[in-house]
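hiii so um. not sure if this is the right channel but i have a protein structure encoded as tokens and i wanna go backwards to a sequence. like what aa goes where. can anyone help
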């Protein structure tokens, strides 16, 4: 699946995904988060609270977001992987406020109140969820 198809699949996905990151020593972390927000064809954003993922992103800046919709068999699953690089951290401003408001709508006031930072990522690469090529 080419990058255009991956981005189209990402746009159609509604639900949680897994954001994986690593710290400066290479220790990895994976956590479930709500959907990333598309800013333009090359950038996505998410708001995070004080957590291991935010710490890792401040240290290393690279992450992978995996999103999926289960199918009848594993090969029927749909989704993809976005390889990301953090380009900006915002603790206030319009983007952060909008992400907090969206989180309050979907996850409630308590979840929104935990958010501390919006992270803007550049999409470096996309890959299919299931990739049987070498």
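sure thing!! here u go:
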């Amino acid at each position: 699946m080419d990058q255009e198809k991956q981005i189209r699949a990402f746009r159609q996905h509604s639900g949680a995904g897994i954001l994986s990151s690593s710290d400066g020593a290479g220790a990895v972390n994976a956590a479930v988060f709500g959907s990333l927000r598309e800013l333009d064809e090359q950038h996505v954003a998410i708001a995070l609270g004080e957590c291991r993922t935010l710490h890792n992103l401040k240290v290393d800046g690279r992450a992978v977001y995996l999103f999926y919709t289960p199918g009848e068999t594993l090969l029927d699953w749909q989704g993809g992987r976005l390889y990301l690089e953090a380009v900006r951290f915002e603790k206030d401003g319009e983007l952060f406020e909008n992400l907090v408001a969206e989180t309050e709508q979907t996850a409630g006031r308590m979840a929104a109140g935990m958010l501390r930072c919006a992270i803007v990522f550049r999409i470096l690469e996309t890959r299919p969820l299931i990739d049987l090529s070498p």
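oh and The chain has one domain: 3-128.
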